[in-house]
Write a structure and sequence with these properties.
Organism: Alteromonas gracilis
Number of strands: 8
Bound molecules: ligand C2E, calcium ion
Number of helices: 11
Shape: globular
Distance between the termini: 72 Å
Strand content: 15-25%
Low-confidence stretches: none
Structural class: alpha/beta
Mean pLDDT: 93
Order of helices and strands: HEEHHEHHEHHEEHHEHEH
Protein name: GGDEF domain-containing protein
Strand order of the largest sheet: 1-2-3-4-5-6-7-8
Amino acid sequence: AKAEGRNRYHFFTHALSQQLRQHRDIAANLRTSLSNNEFELLYQPQYDLKTGKVASCEALLRWRPQNESLAVPPNVFIPIAERSDLIVQIGNWVLENACQQARLWKEKGIEVRIDVNVSGKELEKTAYFERLADCRNQYHLLPKDIGLELTENILIKSDNAILENLRYQRDLGVEISLDDFGTGYSSLSYLKHFPVSHLKIDRSFLKGAPEKAFDSALMEAIVNVGHKLDLFIVVEGVETEQQSDYCKSLNVEFVQGYLYSKPISADAMEALLEKQG
Ligand code: C2E
Ligand code: CA
Ligand code: CA
Ligand code: CA
């Protein structure tokens, strides 16, 4: 039994050091990719349920290392990048490229807001809001052209200075979405303290609705409170017509999901926007 315990101990420490090594390698490769510009932004449309038209789009990062076998999806590399300052450089790249894209589209007469995902670690650096303003100025954009997506856990942990900065951006006209709503540690009562304009309900709630009474009760409660607080509701992960109809029945404003479109390249997004006029 003692030997077995020792083996298990070795097994775990081995697995742990292997994982550490893996994370260290991913971080090193990300660093290389940053200097080689080996990333791409895909865009996923967010539809206005009333008009059926694209209202905005979310920028989603993809890693395209030269050695394709090194690539891992964002839900793997973002958390690793968040453990170091890498996320700040990656966030810069995302912001810069989203602004550049918004400018290109404007020049072609295409007006669409681009929402970028922002990590808590980026906000902690006070320079974030200066960079945002600089980027908007550099590409001659308006505050409404670039939206921010933040999770509730970020907002709960944010100090007053960050909340003040966010409030200021809201006053300027920046749309701020509370991402993955319902999966974090906050409660509905927190909502009125956060400077947000949109509530994005996490797709896990939609999954069981409308059949599962508990899931639909939660969906309805979130939508109702959101609307009482004058927030727009966005439902993500809409995959079926039935889910779309359910969102309509709840008077949800915006939907996003594979039913409408997967995240697509800038060119494909442009074609989509041009087609709808
Ligand atoms: P998220 O912000 O919640 O983004 C939504 C994720 O759901 C995306 O995964 C999207 O491709 C996926 N999705 C969209 N519609 C559907 C659907 O109908 N069904 C299903 N099953 N999935 C759907 P993706 O692109 O792999 O991104 C994963 C996460 O990585 C994002 O979750 C976000 O937290 C993070 N991320 C992505 N890009 C960035 C970025 O530029 N910066 C930061 N900080 N995080 C990012
Ligand atoms: Ca998001
Ligand atoms: Ca989300
Ligand atoms: Ca998520």
